[in-house]
């Protein structure tokens, strides 16, 4: 009886490993996707680690897009249980930091103009200040979503311009997903406003959202089939 119980326990353990993607395929068990995401605490630690690395790169402000892009690519490798050494993150930074200025500089200038509008609207110096403030906040949110989605589409071979041009089509194809990414951007802004060091966790979570949202959409399509 003990031998049979031991075999059953071993079989159940093998099935769990197969579903997580960590172990060999077991007959009748579908291997799991994104095996790197099954260890929740490990994923949380990786999000914080990559958030810190992205924050260091983003200190240049105009370097925020490449920081996001490299962090997103790192998290994609991690959740897929691929080689996710830090060296690949820095390789992406080196490959994309100069070309990323075509996105980073205009984004910073637009953000500065919108922020000034919001501040002036709040001070009462502008007529129709409330409407201007709403437009300014909405513009900042749209800008944040565009930067996140552009960073998510970037690769060294694709380039920044092509990544940016893909954003409208991506939004049209998954409006709910764009809303999720907008929520991640709002979360990052709120936690940073509450306590500046929380930007590290916020930007890491935003990068993870960019990784997770398309995976959610693919699973929905597959289940519909």
Element layout with pairings:
Elements: H1 2-20, H2 40-58, H3 64-79, H4 86-96, H5 101-123, H6 129-153, H7 160-165, H8 167-173, H9 175-194, H10 199-224
Features:
225 residues, mainly alpha, disordered C terminus
Tally of contiguous helical segments: 10
Structural class comes to: mainly alpha
Helix and strand sequence: HHHHHHHHHH
Shape: globular
Termini Cα gap: 43 Å
Strands, count: 0
- The whole-angstrom Rg is 21 Å
Report the β-strand fraction as a percent range.
Answer: under 5%
Largest sheet: none
Tell me roughly what share of residues is in helical segments. over 70%
Number of domains: 1
Mean pLDDT: 84
| Low-pLDDT regions | 18-26, 219-225
Q: What do these coordinates show?
A:
It is built from ten helices and no strands. It is mostly helical and 225 residues long. The relative contact order is 0.11. Helix 2 (40-58) packs antiparallel against helix 3 (64-79) and helix 3 (64-79) packs across helix 10 (199-224). It has helices at residues 2-20, 40-58, 64-79, 86-96, 101-123, 129-153, 160-165, 167-173, 175-194, 199-224. The termini are far apart. The protein has one domain (40-224).
Write a concise synopsis of the structure shown.
It contains ten helices and no strands. It has helices at 2-20, 40-58, 64-79, 86-96, 101-123, 129-153, 160-165, 167-173, 175-194, 199-224.
């Amino acid at each position: 009886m003990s031998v049979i119980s031991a075999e059953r326990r071993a079989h159940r353990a093998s099935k769990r490993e197969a579903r997580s993607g960590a172990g060999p395929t077991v007959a009748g068990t579908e291997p799991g996707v994104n095996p790197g995401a099954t260890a929740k605490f490990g994923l949380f630690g990786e999000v914080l680690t990559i958030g810190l690395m992205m924050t260091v790169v983003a200190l240049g402000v105009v370097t925020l897009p490449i920081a996001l892009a490299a962090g997103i690519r790192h998290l994609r490798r991690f959740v897929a249980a691929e080689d996710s050494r830090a060296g690949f993150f820095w390789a992406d930074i080196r490959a994309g930091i100069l070309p990323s200025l075509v996105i980073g500089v205009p984004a910073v200038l637009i953000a500065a103009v919108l922020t000034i509008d919001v501040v002036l609207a709040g001070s009462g110096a502008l007529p129709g200040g409330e409407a201007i403030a709403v437009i300014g906040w909405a513009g900042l949110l749209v800008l944040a979503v565009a930067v996140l989605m552009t960073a998510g589409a970037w690769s060294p071979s694709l380039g920044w311009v092509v990544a940016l041009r893909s954003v409208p089509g991506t939004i049209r194809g998954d409006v709910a997903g764009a809303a999720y990414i907008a929520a991640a951007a709002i979360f990052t802004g709120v936690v940073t406003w509450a306590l500046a060091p929380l930007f590290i966790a916020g930007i890491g979570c935003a990068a993870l959202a960019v990784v997770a949202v398309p995976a959610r959409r693919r699973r929905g399509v597959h289940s519909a089939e």
